[in-house]
TrEMBL record:
GO BP terms: intracellular zinc ion homeostasis
Domain Cation efflux protein transmembrane: 67-259
Protein name from the UniProt record: Cation transporter
Gene Ontology MF: a single term: cadmium ion transmembrane transporter activity
Annotated spans, Disordered: 1-35
Matching NCBIfam families: CDF
Organism: Jiangella rhizosphaerae
Bilayer topology: Multi-pass membrane protein
Amino acid sequence: MGSAHHHGTGHGHGHDADHGHGHGHGHGRGSGWFGRLRHALTPHSHDATEVIESAEEASGAGIRAAWIGLAGMMATAALQLVIVAVSGSVGLLADTVHNLGHAITTIPLLIAFRLGRRAPTRRYPYGFRRAEDLSGVLIALVIAASAALIIVEAVRALIEPRELTNLGWVLAAALIGAAGNEAVAVYRIRIGRRIGSAALVAEGHHARADGLTSLVVVVGVAGAWLGFPRADAVVGLVVGAAILWILVTSARTIFRRLMDGVDDGTVEAIESVAAGVDGVHGVGRVRARWTGHRLEADVDVNVDGAATVAEGHRIAEIVHHALLHRVRHLGHVVVHVNPAYDGVVPDDVHELTAHHAAR
């Protein structure tokens, strides 16, 4: 029977539709106001307190968050346009147009979520969820452009202070922009972490960056009232640095996923769950990677070499089921079975393919 198990048992069922996954890795958030601020500015791939039950539900939540965020940004820009019409401020018009431009970046994210729902094809056998990560790259580039723009404008304002007009109207519009963008940011980041979408989290941080830009305008108005015309320039440089930090942390997560990297503890969690299943005498190679907002994995488990093929398959199925339940965001897993004797897998079990693995 050992030779029958030599090739292993492959399981690739899509159990996404029926199971919730609820393990959390936890994040060291720190304490005090600095810890809370750092946690707010640092994107995470998931929030351990919330559970999404299926890939379809996760995609639906992502699409809904993108649309609601878009509606929020459009409402914010509409209010600002009203103030522009009343005040006649050209500078305020430029800020409003910038916010409208941000709303446009939501479109690629929506397209990515829609593509991710398409069934795999022979040309794209893993499906289309990677489009979500590609949209994250675009969002990171837009955040970089925002940081560059605000830093250039801050330096220019330091060299040549500009006189602000219609201060009351400008302040009102800036406060609307800051509040509207922050509301969108909080919502998108929360949903992005909940469903494991790095792109949606990045888009939330993009909204936060725009909100911080509006706060620069608020400080500029306050500085003008108090007789410090360069106040907005100084704060602009600080905000530009904060946006660069947001960019670095967002881009790090996005590019890690493009390189098939996973969160700390993910592989260990898979090993632990698989090793805890009755009939598993050891766990071999474990791999996992993100495709959009879902994880795919494969794991080698050792079972009694004297067991039947049916028994090996049953154990692999139990391992598969346990992983889907207990590893968060896991949408697909392949379980490979190795025959073990006294807990040890003989060297000759993989003799045929060993020279390929050694390369």
